[in-house]
Amino acid sequence: MNNNRNEQDFHRYTLEGEWIVLAGKTDEANDRLSLRVADPDDWWFHVKGMPGSHVVLRHRQDRTPDKSILRAAASIAAWHSKARNGGTTAVSMTRARHVSKPSGAKAGTVMIRKETVLLVKPGLPENPHE
After folding, report:
1. pLDDT-derived band at 4, boundaries 50, 70, 90
2. Regarding beta strands 19-24 and 99-100, do their DSSP bridges make them parallel or antiparallel, or are they unpaired?
3. 5-31 residues labelled b (16+ CB within 10 A) or e (exposed)
4. How many C-beta atoms lie closer than 10 Å to residue 86's C-beta?
5. Predicted TM-score of the model (pTM)
């Protein structure tokens, strides 16, 4: 069942409809998640302008996530950040294919393109872990 190397380096959540969300636990895990584990079609999230986990919503061949699923994944990104106790939080969202690492950047630092910003409250799903 463990189809990702070092999956213990990630928090794993299951959202309504069996959508899977992974969140990095360290800067190194964030790099692995964003640059090696994430599929180009996965959705990628990070709180805007402050430290936090990189969060990936796994894409599915059979359907597209609705706005509530995207917002739930963004809420997880806000929860796993320095904005956890800050109320409504801006979270960047893009497809994983638009995430890259600048040459020489430290672990956990990435650049993104084609960003959408969602305003959400930090939070976790009711039944967070498999």
Report:
1. very low
2. unpaired
3. eeeebbbebebeeebbbbbbeeeebbb
4. 13
5. 0.90
